[in-house]
Design brief:
With 271 residues, this protein is α/β, with parallel strands linked by helices. Helix content is 42%, strand content 14%. The longest helix has 29 residues. The two termini are 31 Å apart.
């Protein structure tokens, strides 16, 4: 099936691990020209090598921390200089700084959660939009979360930030439709990767030092149980590739009449 992505210029943030890596490689398999963004240079080199093996027309890695003041402008400048524009933007970066009951939280952590999860989406999108408008159209796919839809216990600020990503998706779709740009959001519940290559040094899901392992290691089992949801399927978590498949579709020419939507890839946990 031709997804209409051959030669398209695509940017994927958080492309070195888990969902972002799977998205980058799926787009590469369609012959896209990939700009992968991340912080881990070794993991980035692995993604670029794998992308070229999968058939990417071109593959580049930019070692950039999106929380740096000039990060978004650097990405836009590289895309403009190298390719003259951008066709697809996947805002995958997001994360958690702290977990726990909100009444016991520290205000210093709130802004960090918001900056990582919402601020990066706003910043990169604002920097790239002129390049996409100049291209005469494009696709923006944001990564949300079921946390943004129903809220995750002990992740109040993260849930609020993801909810804001969902709202931003809908509003931006209204604003940029006139430029033939679609804006959608893929919202997974949780993912579980089996490939060691799917973990970068900063991955939240790293089996040894990832956020989730550290943040909830000492939490009472009864409290941890409140965080869990299950659906009708026999497993709770998606693979990164299953989430990436939804992103690939929304980034493709096949999804040209879909915009402003939140697609939950959650195994029915919201049912």
């Amino acid at each position: 099936m031709d997804m209409g992505l051959q030669g398209k210029v695509v940017i994927v943030t958080g492309a070195t691990a888990n969902i972002g890596r799977a998205i980058a490689l799926d787009l590469a398999s369609e012959g896209a020209r990939l700009i992968a963004i991340g912080r881990d240079e070794e993991a980035g080199a692995r993604v670029v090598a794998a992308a070229r093996e999968r058939g990417a027309a071109e593959a580049h890695f930019l070692a950039i921390d999106l929380l740096e003041p000039d990060a978004c402008e650097r990405i836009a400048r590289f895309a403009a200089t190298t390719f003259g524009g951008v066709d697809v933007l996947v805002n995958n970066v997001g994360g958690n700084v702290a977990a726990g009951l909100f009444a016991e939280s520290e205000p210093a952590t709130w802004q960090k959660d918001i900056d990582i999860t919402l601020g990066t989406v706003l910043g990169v999108t604002r920097a790239i939009l002129p390049l996409m408008i100049g291209r005469g159209g494009g696709r923006i796919v944001n990564l949300g979360s079921t946390a943004g839809t129903v809220g995750d216990y002990m992740l109040s600020v993260y849930s609020a930030a993801k909810g804001a990503v969902h709202a931003f998706t809908r509003v931006l779709a209204k604003e940029v439709g006139v430029h033939d740009i679609t804006v959608n959001c893929v919202a997974p519940y949780g993912t579980l990767a089996s490939d060691p290559a799917a973990f970068s040094s900063g991955s939240r899901f790293h089996p040894e030092h990832g956020f989730f392992r550290q943040a909830f290691a000492g939490v009472d089992p009864a409290e941890r149980a409140k965080m869990s949801r299950s659906g009708p399927l026999r497993r709770t978590f998606a693979t990164p590739e299953e989430v990436a498949g939804a992103v690939l579709y929304l980034a493709s020419s096949r999804a040209g009449f879909i915009t402003g939507q939140i697609l939950h890839v959650d195994g029915g946990t919201l049912l």
